[in-house]
Specification:
This protein is α/β, with parallel strands linked by helices. It has one domain: LmbE-like (Rossmann fold), CATH 3.40.50.10320. Helix content is about 35%, strand content about 20%. The chain contains 9 helices and 9 strands. It has a 7-stranded mixed beta sheet with strand order 3-2-1-4-5-9-8. The chain has a two-stranded antiparallel ribbon with strand order 6-7. It is globular and about 45 Å long.
Amino acid sequence: MARQLHPLELLGAGTGPVAVVVAHPDDEIIGAGHLLRSLPDAVIIYVTDGAPHDMADARAAGCMTREAYAERRRRERAAALTEVGLGPDRTRDLGAVDQQASYELSALALRLRATLDALRPAAVLTHSYEGGHPDHDATAFIVHAAAEPQLGSSRRPTTRGGAPPIIELTSYHASGGRRVVGVFIPHPAAGPEVSVALTAAARRRKARLYAYHRSQIRVLADCQVDVERFRRAPAYDFSRPPHAGVLWYERFGWGMPGGGRQWRALAAAARAELGLVRSDGGSP
């Protein structure tokens, strides 16, 4: 009987470890909590510490300092990852403050490139560019920037065959004035989706993973447990909005008072600083 292909193999991943690059602790569980059980060699790379300068969430979680809240989120993520068989040696931190990743895109892209050069993953699993959270979009940006061969002084490919394929997991975005979780915004250049339907037992296990993130219980309340979706990432034009209308984070600010226009200006400045050309071959 022929071996059934792993979902990531269907999307072009080779054999070897997978780098899962996410903005916050719990994003990996939302998008791929079930899949992680089949990736014992995965390395989870967190762009931020999950603790914004705004103390509202920290105080709601019973933490009196930002640092205490960040530590709580580290403990929550460690407990959830232990449940799927991933220990502390399977995590890396890029060190940004929650809601601030967009202000250090260049440094984070170079830091991620160095991390991926060391790991040499078979694929990178990360966020799509969809305007849900500025840190999500920042993460998408730095992953795509890190994959560009002209980035930085190192010309070494991240794998022997070149840059690893970028595969997306779902998070959330705005549609019709509400938050939509667990589906992608359609993109004409994106690859076909692979959907993994979870059995009743798998749904219970994923709900248990959510429960470890007790400080995020309100955020996770409407996150699905019945299916996980993945697709090959398109080549994004980060100078354009991810969709028409108001972006989800523009309703809240979340460290980006100028909204999507400000975010896109930061992305353009980072591309120029990194010396990256546009996809059409023009100057940054």
